[in-house]
Design goal:
The protein is an alpha/beta fold and about 130 residues long. The chain has one domain. Strand 4 and strand 5 form a beta hairpin.
Length: about 130
């Protein structure tokens, strides 16, 4: 009986440890129907794994895709995250899409792209 409880605790520990975690999944511009299909599949799979397998609360997984992945929406998501996260919380940021490394590092979104420096500034606003 003790062994069963210990095993159950060990198996549930990752889900319990991540229950208060937050995630932002950014799906950039696909560029082709084939990539759009892949990006949609990867985005949905990532969200599902976070919630179903790792125990994230569904309301703490923000997904921005298609036209919603633009500068204004990304900034708004970081405002939400800033209000949601507390010191010691865990935060995951996922980029699904294309980027460029010529000159400045960028992730391709709808409208003007953010640079790596822009994302660094957004991340620095979070308390984790």
């Amino acid at each position: 009986m003790k062994l069963t409880l210990l095993l159950a605790f060990i198996l549930l520990l990752p889900a319990m440890a991540l229950a208060d975690s937050s995630a932002l999944i950014l799906t950039g511009v696909a560029g082709s129907p084939e990539h759009a299909e892949k990006f949609t599949k990867w985005t949905e799979g990532t969200r599902k794994a976070l919630v179903d397998k790792f125990g994230f609360s569904a309301d703490r997984v923000i997904v921005l895709s298609d036209k919603k992945t633009a500068q204004a929406e990304i900034k708004a998501a970081f405002v939400t995250l800033k209000q949601q996260l507390k010191a010691g919380d865990t935060f995951f940021l996922f980029f699904i899409g294309h980027g460029s490394g010529e000159g400045e590092y960028k992730f391709n979104i709808s409208g003007p792209d953010f640079t790596a420096e822009d994302y660094s500034k957004l991340l620095s606003t979070l308390t984790v």
